[in-house]
Amino acid sequence: MRKGKAALAAMILLLAGQIARSEEPRTPLKELGYDVVYVEIPGGPHEPFQKETPKVIEYFNKHVRNPWPKKFVYSIREAKPVRAYWVEVVKASGSVDLKAEVQEGNRISITCSGAEEIELRLCDDLADLDKPVTVALNGAEVHNAVVPRTLEAIVLDFRQGRDQNAAGCARLKMNPK
To answer: How many angstroms separate the CA atoms of 60 and 54, rounded?
Structure first.
């Protein structure tokens, strides 16, 4: 994510065979704020494009993933545990829709449906953990205190095979319902 830009976390590269319609597939994603690059292969089939592999590698070398985006949206249509960046849905009761944003003043806003329990995995890239962190969940303030850094939080992320750049050092559990 570019600094100062209110964009969503993912940068998307779409490779597609020739599409026989006027609306490009990237339009809805761009409207949501995603950084989308669309490449249509004239006469291309709807299968992997091996000849395009060097372009794909070049794209992802230039667009490194930010493991700690300040703002993201996430949806899944299954009732299952899942981690979306720094928010983990520990227990879901149905389809999960999640919007998360770190705001000015060490404030985190989470809007979530379909989850019974979530856990925030925080780090100093997201918030100043030396100061109280205020969390609003579905519009209600649910936390306003320091979230302590723990070795247990870091070790747990590493044990779960997480990206070493995305290991949180503090955790905060909460129930959206």
So the answer is: 10
Q: Which of 14, 5, 8 is nearest to 34 (CA)?
A: 8
Question: What are the beta bridge partners of residue 89?
Answer: 82, 118
Average pLDDT in the 30-38 region?
71
Type of residue numbered 152: E
Strands 87-103 and 107-122: antiparallel
The model's pTM: 0.71
Q: What does the domain layout of the chain look like in residue ranges?
A: 11-62, 71-174
| Listed residue (75, 76, 101) closest to 86, CA to CA | 101
**What is the pLDDT of the chain when averaged over all its residues?**
81
Residue 157 backbone dihedrals phi, psi, to 5 degrees: -65, -45
